[in-house]
Amino acid sequence: MPVNALFRFAHRSAAAPQASGDAASSGRRLVTIALALGLLGGCASTTQVADTANDANVAATDAVDPGEPPAPPVLERPIPDASVYPLLLAEFALRRRDFDTALNTYLEQADVLRDPAVSAHTTHLAQFLQREREAFRAVRLWVELEPDNLEANGTLATLLARQGRNREALPYLAVIARAGEQAKFPVLLNRFKALRPEDQLGLEADAQALIDDDLGGDVSLRLTHALMAEERGDAAAVRERLIPVFALEPYQQQALVLEAKLNLAAGDDEPLARIKEALKKDPTRTDLRLQYARLLASQDMPAARKQFEILSAEAPHNADLLFSLALINHELKDNIAAKAYLNQVIALGKRNDEAYLFLGQIARTEGDLDEAVQLFQQVGDGTDLMKATISIAQIQIAREKDQELADYMNRLRASYPHRKEQFYALEANIYSQTDRDARGLELLDRAIAEFPESDNLRYARSVAYERIGNISGAEVDLRAIIERDPENSTALNALGYTLANRTERYDEARALIEKALALTPNEPSVLDSMGWVLYHQGDLDNAEAYLTRAYASFPDPEVAAHLGEVLWMKGKTNSAMTVWRSALQEDPQHVVLNETLTRLGISLQADADS
Q: Average pLDDT in the 78-102 region?
């Protein structure tokens, strides 16, 4: 391949144009090395360089074909003396995989040489290394030196958009579009919602100016303009801007889908009519049919199933389509078909864990619990393993097969030792949720003996201790966590709340909660704890303020119980009743809420039931 012109020039010393034989030879050797290494994007090997020289000698003796115009002369300029060694250093650094040295050297030399090829190579290297700041620096110089280079303009536009400088990116995309090439205008949608409203509108105005000027026929620009309006939620503007898109390209896929979503949101009688028309005109548009099927699933499940069946018939080994058909048939209460599709997925050896999980869920809903457990146990190590394990635990606990569950959990820990701690925590949580505190504590004692540094397991045991009233045990575990991690706001808050709720050590509790609050000032559980300890210290006004903030961001029944009690004690009985009633409607059986009402002698259950 042609060698970069920058390295085809003889190395000449500025101080001594007629260098001695040794100096001139040294310079030529350096240039030969540069050529051989293919510096700055060249890929010639030493052999290729020699071949190139031989080819040049042969060409010099051949007669020139009179039918061929002479090749244009290669523009040459010397490499400055001071740059030869740094460039060689950079190339050797690349071969040693010393990327930092190579990139930093190229960046320096790009500024020194101000050559487009050097800037281009530096940009490519920075992109390869995923060093966006350096790539941005290099490509800015590249565009400055070679303003009509389409790759440079596209790269700079992309990097600007990633920085949220979308308006600055647009002119560089316009350079590409004006050259008749496909500009990636959709990159302007990157972080569009994060822009200030005035910047969003400014970008849209800039795009409109290009459309009005000379790029009105660019479908990508017009579609991007419509998508900007969609990002702002301006449906009317989207529809208006889609009209010229369809005029230029009647069945542009993204425009079809965008219009269909608008139609669905507006409740149109035939929201997908244009997509249907496009598929009738060209039934081979598989990607569009898939979009059509997905859109149909939101309004006409049988019609969606038909489209997925067409797609699956064309691609019978596509596990994703088979899985979609399983979901749709299950939704249509045709579990026989759903199971058949899932078994096809398993036969293909793809998405097996998802398929077994889904089959287990179907068996569970059908009441075949033994089959469900067997299917859940087929799920392997991955994102679905915990879901399957929880399902097995729920089934076995409900059937009072605690020992079978314990045996299975032991097998899991043996099979997946890297998840051992996680399975201990999961099993302990299951026992906690089902009032099996003694079994849970026994398990956690064993787990912590095996993982003494596990904060998660100690925290779980502190919760179990608190549930059975062993406050000293809970305190020991929480203080162990805090000793290892003094800024663990969860442990600080838990200990502070426990002391405030279950002892009279209010000053100590408040100090712990204040530290947790300083670390996580907007965490609802910490706000609740602060309000609760202030209530116990008699500061009802500040207690109300903290609990109101907590309840506003997290309307949990326990927070409602605390806030209601403070309001009640302040004589704001109607407000207290309102908070409690709302919480009871969400969870009529909540233990803390009902204990609070019982303790205060208030009966709201009848109201909640009504």
A: 89
